[in-house]
Design a protein that fits this description.
With about 190 residues, the chain is α+β, with helices and mostly antiparallel strands. It is about 30% helix and about 30% strand.
Length: about 190
């Protein structure tokens, strides 16, 4: 079990394995979270998240229905193309959707990277669930997928996300422009 995890990641292939797998688990559970691979049936859940102005304030703003569908299609294709992607997160105690998190390919300054992405519904902010999800994604990236480095982007003033990244063993790398906006690039060491 990784030292990063307070609880083991258990997926459909288990966490103990001799070499990286070609794909990430379709589902995994932590003490306080259950994660399930993004599927088309998650569209209503995504629409609720994408329509939440507080949640989307640092993610480019509220998305229209068409933008949510396009985001879903891109991220479903990512799973097919690469064998990993976004998971929908549920609170283990209640089963309520807490947010989303995952790993996905991204180009930064013309370099191919794998990015940690996470977003929690506001009612779960400050609960530590984002840190749990981020740590699990890093563990999956390193131990399942054999990634030597993972990056994450935050707005320069998004201190809460930066705290999550510090707790998940990311360190600041540099300032970048992404989607036409300034961001801080963090990287696992």
């Amino acid at each position: 079990m990784s030292a990063l995890m307070e609880a083991p990641v258990t997926g459909d292939r288990g966490v103990n394995h001799p070499a990286p797998f070609e794909t990430a688990p379709s589902a995994f559970s932590l003490r306080r979270l259950h994660a399930e691979r993004l599927i088309e049936a998650h569209l209503p859940v995504l629409r609720r998240m994408d329509g939440n102005p507080r949640l989307m304030a640092t993610l480019g703003g509220v998305r229209s229905a068409a933008e949510s569908v396009a985001w879903l299609q891109r991220n479903l294709a990512h799973w097919v193309d690469y064998g990993f992607g976004i998971w929908v997160l549920r609170d283990s105690a209640t089963g309520r959707v807490a947010g989303r998190a995952g790993l996905r390919h991204l180009r930064i300054d013309d370099a191919a990277e794998v990015e940690l992405s996470f977003a929690l519904v506001p009612e779960f902010w400050g609960s530590g669930l984002a840190t749990d999800a981020a740590r699990a994604c890093v563990t999956i990236g390193r131990e399942w997928l054999g990634l030597s480095s993972i990056v994450a982007l935050t707005a320069p003033d998004h201190v809460a996300s930066q705290r999550v990244l510090w707790k998940a063993a990311f360190v600041p790398d540099r300032e970048v422009t992404h989607a036409g906006l300034p961001h801080l690039l963090f990287r696992t060491d």
